[in-house]
Design a protein that fits this description.
about 400 residues; mainly alpha; Growth Hormone, Chain: A; globular; 2 domains
Length: about 400
């Protein structure tokens, strides 16, 4: 057991990553607190589920549009310095939101503007944080473990953050959640500011134009025998798979299981527990050998589990299926992240990760809109079968494309 625990946390032996991990965990907790507080504030001000969708959509979509430029910029300079700037901008956005809420001047138009601003910050922050892990942890044996530990941190924050925010909102209101989130950016900004990275001393200004670097990133990804199939798989998973848990879970709890908000809480918690277990499982891997087989296995299994959940009318069975789905989601995403950071050239890494985040986060809002519409005009069961089948078929296509690439090489 001692050996397994040492293997699970081996990346923490790296001094830079150890400080980054602690700061990133604090930042993730604040982010999840603000998400819940902001959603509740939008609903309290408008009483409209449509406004909830609009504010969320525009926040994510602004990130989606800016990510190609963000990736090119992150590859052209110091990722660390750009990340420091993004932390300070995130701090300013959350602090302004807290001040407006405390003063009572906040309204839905301000929330929309601030959501767009946060999306612009995330366009640099999300791919930058992913790519920066390989700057700190150059040993590939440790890299996979570091990415898995990030997933553990993220999913633990996803479990604890909303619950903590719910208590804070009930007792003190939404503004303290925004204030806590603003303060959570400061440890990350300080750690990044003080960090010394050996590779930074070798940085040189790129000779290509900004436009050329963006185009090169897309061409490189589209022609790569591993990255391109992975992006197809990730896009379909985000578009048709993630939307099931983002949109249809309340309907499943109500119509399929005859439950209420408590039932929904159990389903979401079961998925969160499975996610943490999946991240721990990946952290136990000793190397990256065979990592390319894990994303299709995980996402294909998620698709089959989604189809099974569509026909479940038993709470115990549904909880088990949700736990397995959570396991597959995190196992697949973490394995995909590791795979891309392992195979991508160092000079292209930020651009590859920015496209990865476009596939991951940009497709989800679109899929949520589609899944909500499709389930309304057909049925929840039909929509879930479509989503699950799409994920399974995309996993099969990935396997076929990879096999052809191996045979032709």
């Amino acid at each position: 057991m001692r050996i397994n625990l040492e293997q699970t946390f081996i990346a923490l032996q790296n001094f830079n990553y150890r400080r980054y991990f602690v700061a990133n965990s604090i930042s993730s907790l604040g982010t999840w607190m603000q998400r819940l507080g902001m959603s509740w504030l939008v609903y309290k001000l408008t009483g409209s589920a449509s406004w909830l969708g609009i504010v969320t959509f525009f926040g994510w979509f602004s990130s989606f549009l800016l990510m190609p430029w963000a990736g090119a910029l992150l590859d052209s300079g110091s990722r660390r310095k750009i990340l420091v700037a993004s932390q300070l901008l995130g701090f300013a956005q959350a602090m302004f939101l807290a001040a407006m809420t405390y003063s009572g001047l906040i309204n839905v138009n301000w929330l929309l503007v601030l959501s767009l601003l946060l999306g612009l910050v995330n366009a640099f922050d999300m791919p930058g944080r992913h790519a920066f892990v390989s700057d700190m942890v150059e040993d590939k044996k440790m890299l996979a473990n570091a990415i898995a530990l990030n997933s553990i941190s993220f999913n633990l924050a996803r479990l604890v953050g909303p619950a903590l925010a719910g208590l804070v909102v009930a007792k003190l209101g939404e503004a303290p959640c925004f204030l806590m989130n603003s303060l959570s950016f400061l440890p990350m900004a300080w750690v990044l500011f003080r960090m010394k990275i050996a590779s930074e001393s070798a940085e040189r200004a790129p000779s290509e134009s900004f436009k050329t670097r963006i185009i090169e990133g897309f061409r490189y990804s589209a022609s790569h025998p591993v990255i391109f199939p992975a992006f197809i798989l990730i896009s379909v998973m985000s578009l048709m798979g993630m939307s099931v848990q983002m949109v249809l879970m309340p309907v499943i709890a109500d119509q399929h299981l005859g439950g209420d908000a408590t039932t929904l809480g159990w389903l979401v918690s079961a998925m969160g527990v499975g996610a943490v277990v999946g991240a721990f499982k990946l952290a136990l891997r000793k190397n990256v050998e065979g990592i390319e087989r894990l994303p299709p296995a995980a996402f294909g299994s998620y698709g089959l589990l989604t189809v099974a959940l569509a026909f479940s009318r038993n709470l115990t069975i549904s909880l088990l299926l949700c736990a397995l789905m959570g396991f597959c989601i995190v196992f697949g995403w973490s394995a995909s992240n590791t795979l891309l950071q392992t195979v991508a050239e160092k000079r292209m890494l930020s651009r590859v990760m920015s496209i990865y985040m476009m596939c991951f986060s940009g497709m989800s809002p679109i899929g949520s809109l589609f899944m909500g519409w499709f389930s309304t005009y057909t049925s929840t069961t039909t929509a879930m079968v479509l989503g699950g089948t799409s994920c399974f078929i995309s996993a099969v296509i990935y396997a076929i494309m990879r096999r052809r690439a191996l045979l032709s090489s």
